[in-house]
Design brief:
With about 200 residues, the chain is α/β, with parallel strands linked by helices. The protein folds into two domains: about 5-15 and about 85-200, Rossmann fold, CATH 3.40.50.1000; about 20-85. The protein contains eleven helices and seven strands. It has helices spanning about 20-25, 30-40, 45-50, 55-65, 70-80, 90-100, 115-120, 135-140, 145-155, 170-180, 190-200, and strands at about 5-10, 15, 85, 105-110, 130-135, 165, 180-185. The strands form two sheets. Strands 5-4-1-6-7 form a five-stranded parallel beta sheet, sandwiched between helices. Helix 7 links the parallel strand 4 and strand 5 (about 130-135). Helix 1 crosses helix 2 (about 30-40) and helix 4 packs antiparallel against helix 5 (about 70-80). The radius of gyration is 17 Å and the shape is globular. The model has no long low-confidence stretch (mean pLDDT about 95).
């Protein structure tokens, strides 16, 4: 059995997103920056943005806990684009080859709703997907099975086994596996190319 649709995560698969890229400018001390990202602006805190909470609403409670980091906390939303450095090396070329072969291309991203228009402006490649499911628009985040079900609906009611899902999060891959998707844990374009060939998509 092989898939016929490619479903991409965006951050760290298609788009080179790394919060430390921004915070290396704000907090140049490595130890302080690492502590800030591990204990203040954590991925659990950021997940609230992905679930639909605005930057404006999510910052004040954290600032109340860590007032000395107010500027750094507000920068998460205010300087969002400084977390990015273009595309992940090699992925755009693979997407182009899939397009040439006529493979239907979709994306499913945990992403704040308010940043999505910026992504579309700065990264034209994302506009080549037939549809992008943005978690913040739905108030649902991976690995919730409901967001995978919604995505299948957006793909015309595709069956999970028809979809090859690519994500850098093992937790998201495990959730998709449990739902019957064909999957690949992304660790670089070379490995993805091999997986796409094995799947018969390239």
């Amino acid at each position: 059995m092989t898939a016929r649709i490619a479903l991409f995560d965006l951050g760290r698969v298609v788009l080179d997103w790394e919060p430390a890229r921004l915070y290396s400018r704000i907090l140049p001390d490595d130890a302080e920056r690492d502590s800030f990202l591990a204990n203040v602006c954590t991925m659990d805190w950021h997940m609230q943005h992905d679930a639909g909470v605005s930057f404006a609403d999510n910052a004040p409670p954290l600032i109340a806990q860590y007032p000395r980091y107010e500027e750094a906390i507000r920068a998460w939303g205010g300087r969002w684009m400084e977390m990015f450095d273009g595309y992940v090396e090699g992925t755009p070329e693979l997407i182009g080859r899939l397009e040439t072969r006529g493979v239907p291309l979709y994306a499913l991203s945990n992403m704040p709703s308010e940043t999505w228009p910026l992504m579309q402006q700065h990264f034209p490649l994302v506009n080549r997907f037939a549809h992008v499911v943005v978690s913040g628009d739905l108030g649902l985040v991976k690995p919730d099975p409901a967001i995978f079900a919604h995505t299948l609906d957006k793909m015309g009611g595709a069956a999970p086994e028809d979809v090859f899902f690519i994500d850098d999060s093992a937790r998201n891959i495990e959730a998709a596996d449990a739902l019957g998707f064909r999957t690949h844990l992304f660790e670089g374009a070379a490995g993805l190319e091999r997986a796409l060939r094995a799947e018969g998509l390239l």
